[in-house]
Description:
The chain is mainly beta and 145 residues long.
Amino acid sequence: MKYTKGSIGRIFVAKFEDDDILLDKLAELVRKEKIKAATMVFLGALKKGDLVTGPKKPVIPPEPNKVTFKDAWEVMGIGSIFTNNLGPQIHIHSSMGKKKKVLTGCVRGKSKVFLVIEAVIFELKGVRATKAIDPATGLNLLKIF
């Protein structure tokens, strides 16, 4: 295990609105506010989009199990944000439900908000961490230095 220590910086409350592309709008906020590291929690609904619901098999490098959803699902989640020389690196996991169905996974691509998503973003100050592509897995993983 590796770790780094820091403190809470600014706190943002964000309202994502109907048809917003969640990851795009979040990246816009991160760039505008020059956020280098953060964590976030959110709740609301996603209209349609894509999730990665784990690997197809437990091997390295993993092959993602991709799921597409539509018709608006209630959602709650948590994420991390680390900005590197390529821009904001956003990693969000969520659990979503519709009727008696549940999906849990990593929000990807152009997932669209339905009505509203409310988020609280906690900036992390002083942490010595970033995201980078891990050569063994091909994944964009946390790097602590």
